[in-house]
Amino acid sequence: MRQAGAGLAAASTPARGRGDGGQASGSTREKILDVALDLFTDQGFDGTSMREIAGRLGITKPSIYYHFASKEDILLALHTRTHELSKAALSRLASQPLTLHTWGSALDELLDPMAAHRKLFLMHDRNQAAVEKLHRKDHEDEHDDFQQRLQQALADPSLSLRDRVRMACSLGAVFGCLFTAGDAFGDVPGAELGSLVRDAVRDLMTGRSAAQA
Amino acid sequence: MRQAGAGLAAASTPARGRGDGGQASGSTREKILDVALDLFTDQGFDGTSMREIAGRLGITKPSIYYHFASKEDILLALHTRTHELSKAALSRLASQPLTLHTWGSALDELLDPMAAHRKLFLMHDRNQAAVEKLHRKDHEDEHDDFQQRLQQALADPSLSLRDRVRMACSLGAVFGCLFTAGDAFGDVPGAELGSLVRDAVRDLMTGRSAAQA
DNA sequence: GTCTATAATGTGATAGAC
DNA sequence: GTCTATCACATTATAGAC
Known about the structure:
2 copies of one chain form a homodimer. By secondary structure, chain A is mainly α.
């Protein structure tokens, strides 16, 4: 019910400065983000027009450009949010040597923010193409993207194919249960769902056909 | 190497009749499907223009309209292919009472065509929004879509939440290993990858924290 | 902070020659 | 079966009034 409807808080890039420190900014900006999150998820980033976002809010197109410099800027704001939510887990993953165990720990840490902000991560997942396009533009230097960092770990040549498959499957299990399932678990609290997924992933990582070290 | 580059064979909707039974049609049509598969996967359906597809083939936009009635028709042709590849497994799933065991069997059957045609299913997965839009138009009656049938099973109220989570995780594990991993397993033969995933899913479904019946 | 225009561009799709 | 030329339309984005 209070899943992620109005819980985007402050995080993103103002089209104009606001004077104050940039606390909880105008509520219109957050309404835009909330509506965009819904529409980008259901229809895709490219399949959603500014006019449609504005229409849902009862305002007009140019009003949005007062709060965001461009359509991509809206996506960037949402992407930044997922980035910050996954930052901690990804940093820990990068600070340790990559093993089946450290991967499991990082995934475990990642599970909480993902379960708590399913909608946000689902949008991110369903719009990989658009997000990647963003990254190519903004900073072609080091873009420590969510998906990219994980995929990089999965391709680590120092691990056996068997282990890498386990890692990919565990990641997929988390994603799949939280996202692919669609609205199948829409009314299940994030904490409960997270707990059940945690058990499943543990079996996956410690099963009798699993790793040895 | 010979993953799914030119292996789309015959399956879809000709813009014009061809006279003969509709065997292996002109090779241009299949080249279009191959290029579209790549571009739709990388840039998304909406992010890919007809001009771009034509450009890669060294032809022009209108030439494509000789082979396909519309851009959506290209997507439909690709979608139909995935539908046929998953038809058998989904039918078996629907013909049996839904349990953890029958789910596992169906998933096991589904794993083979998915591993053998990763690119095709990846495209389908990355363009859910566009595919769903197709379904709303073409036949608003009974659209037995791939994703939809699976999600429907995951929402079955006769099963416990615990079991449903297991099912979603196992499905996600398959998807995740085959798709989310990106190119991490790009050079691994489908059969080998499928075998490893099979083992992982088995652990997931029979783990000590798993079901009871 | 929101509005009414309107510019500038790219897109899907068609007509008709060859 | 492929081309050149073009239409009709939607989109992002901006200018400027209030």
